[in-house]
Write a structure and sequence with these properties.
The complex is a heterodimer of chains A (about 210) and B (about 140). In chain A, about 35% of the residues lie in helices and about 15% in strands. With about 210 residues, chain A is of the alpha/beta class. In chain A, the strands form two sheets. In chain A, strands 5-4-3-8-9 form a five-stranded mixed sheet, with helices on one face. In chain A, strands 6-7 form a two-stranded antiparallel sheet. The longest helix of chain A has 27 residues. Chain B is of the alpha/beta class. Chain B has one domain. In chain B, the strands form two sheets. In chain B, strands 2, 5, 6, 7, 8 and 9 form a six-stranded mixed sheet that branches. In chain B, strands 3-10 form a two-stranded parallel ribbon. Classes of the chains: A alpha/beta (about 210), B alpha/beta (about 140). At the A-B interface, helix 1, strand 1, strand 2 and helix 5 of A face helix 1, strand 1, strand 4, strand 8 and helix 4 of B. Strand 2 of chain A pairs antiparallel with strand 9 of chain B, so a sheet runs across the interface.
C-alpha cells in the first residue's frame, strides 16, 4: 500500500498558524490602576472623611480644561513639582501636610541615617518623619476632557515614583524598581499613594 | 548530497501553532466605538487578563455614525449600553469567575481621549455600586 502523501501538511499547518496570528491578539493592556472607594451605605449619607486643610491638595479641572491647584491657575507641567513639594514637605512648612513619626525598620537600618540626605527624611534623633495623612484630590467638571484628567493622574503617579526613586537611591543605593519587594514595601510605607477618587462637582460656572 | 528530510516540519509548525493558541487570546469584541487612548509615562501592566472585563467609551465608528449619531457611547460586550446596565454586566461577568479569582476582578476602562468626564464619572459610580472597585485607566505608553 502506498503511504499517504504528507508533503502539504506543513503548508496546511502554516495556514492555521497564520490564521491564529491574525485573529488573536497578544497585546498586553497597560494603564494606571486605581481603587474606587466603597459605595456610601445609603444615598443621603455622604461618607466624607474630614481632612485637615493642610493635608489636602485640591486639583480642579474645569470644563475648558483649565487646571487649578489650591487657588492658583497652573499648567499641566506644574502639577508634578507641586505634587512632589506637597507630598514630601521636606522643609516641614505649616501649610503643607503634617509630618508624623513612623517606624519603618528596613529604612531605619539602611544607610539612610548616614547619608547626606538624612535630614530630609528623619529628625536629628533618627526618627522617620512621614506625611502619611496627606490626600490628593482631583475634581473635574462633567465637561472636562478625559485626557486632561488622565494626564493629571499620570503626573501625580510620576511625582510619587520620582520621590520613591530618590528615597530608594538614598537608602539602598539603587532605583526603586531594582529594590527587593521588602524594600519596595518599606518605601511605599514611607510614601503611600493617596489619590482620592472623589465624586466630581460642577465647577464650570464657578471659575 | 542527501536531501534534507522535511518529514518533521509539520510537527514543528503544529508546535508553534499550539504555542500561539495558548499564549494569545481571541479578540474579545468588535469595537463599535472609536477609541484613541490617552498616553502616559507611568503605566503598569495589567496583571491578569482572565479576571478583567472591558468597558469601552467613545464615539461611534465612521460606519455606524449614520445610524447612531455623534454622541459618546458606552460599549459593553458587543453592544452599546447605558450606564445603568453596567451593574448587570459586572454581576454576570464576575459571576463567571472562580471564587478564588473574584478578589482580582478588575475593570479596564478603555476611554477615548476626548470623552467628557461626566460619562466616565457615571460609569465609575455604577462600578462602585456594583462593588467592582479595582479599575485600570487603559492607556498607551508615551515614547519619547
Amino acid at each position: 500500500m502506498p503511504s499517504l502523501n504528507t508533503t502539504s501538511t506543513a503548508d496546511i499547518s502554516f495556514m492555521l498558524l497564520i490564521f491564529f496570528l491574525v485573529t488573536t491578539s497578544m497585546d498586553t493592556d497597560r494603564g494606571l490602576g486605581r481603587t474606587l472607594p466603597k459605595p456610601p451605605e445609603d444615598e443621603e449619607q455622604q461618607n466624607e472623611i474630614d481632612v485637615k486643610e493642610r493635608n489636602l491638595l485640591n486639583i480642579r479641572v474645569n470644563k475648558d480644561n483649565y487646571l487649578m491647584i489650591g487657588d492658583d491657575f497652573v499648567s499641566l507641567a506644574d502639577v508634578k513639582p507641586r505634587a512632589k513639594e506637597f507630598i514630601a514637605n521636606f522643609e516641614n512648612l505649616s501649610n503643607l501636610p503634617e509630618r508624623n513619626p513612623k517606624s519603618i525598620e528596613l529604612l531605619e537600618n539602611s544607610r539612610l541615617s548616614s547619608s547626606p540626605e538624612a535630614g530630609k527624611y528623619m529628625t536629628a534623633s533618627g526618627k522617620l518623619m512621614v506625611t502619611d495623612k496627606h490626600v490628593i484630590s482631583v475634581q473635574t467638571d462633567r465637561g472636562t476632557s478625559y485626557w486632561v484628567y488622565f494626564e493629571v493622574q499620570n503626573e501625580l503617579v510620576a511625582a510619587y515614583n520620582e520621590l520613591r526613586d530618590d528615597l530608594a537611591e538614598a537608602a539602598f543605593g539603587r532605583h526603586y524598581e531594582n529594590c527587593t519587594s521588602e524594600e519596595q514595601e518599606a518605601i511605599r510605607h514611607f510614601y503611600p499613594q493617596k489619590i482620592s477618587e472623589a465624586e466630581p462637582k460642577k465647577y464650570g460656572k464657578a471659575l | 548530497m542527501p536531501e534534507l528530510s522535511t518529514s518533521s516540519l509539520p510537527d514543528l509548525i503544529f508546535t508553534i501553532l499550539f504555542f500561539f493558541m495558548m499564549v494569545t487570546s481571541m479578540r474579545e469584541v468588535t469595537l463599535k466605538v472609536r477609541i484613541q487612548k490617552p498616553v502616559g509615562t507611568e503605566l503598569e501592566k495589567l496583571a491578569r487578563k482572565s479576571c478583567t472585563s472591558f468597558i469601552y467609551i467613545g464615539k461611534p465608528t465612521e460606519m455606524l455614525k449614520a445610524q447612531y449619531g455623534e454622541g459618546t457611547r458606552i460599549q459593553l460586550n458587543d453592544d452599546y449600553a447605558e450606564a445603568t446596565e453596567i451593574y448587570n454586566f459586572v454581576m454576570s461577568d464576575r459571576g463567571e469567575l472562580a471564587e478564588i479569582d473574584k478578589p482580582f476582578y478588575t475593570i479596564s476602562l478603555k476611554v477615548d481621549r476626548e470623552t467628557p468626564m461626566g460619562i466616565v464619572t457615571d460609569v465609575k459610580q455604577a462600578l462602585r455600586k456594583a462593588y467592582a472597585l479595582k479599575i485600570v485607566y487603559s492607556a498607551d505608553q508615551k515614547n519619547d
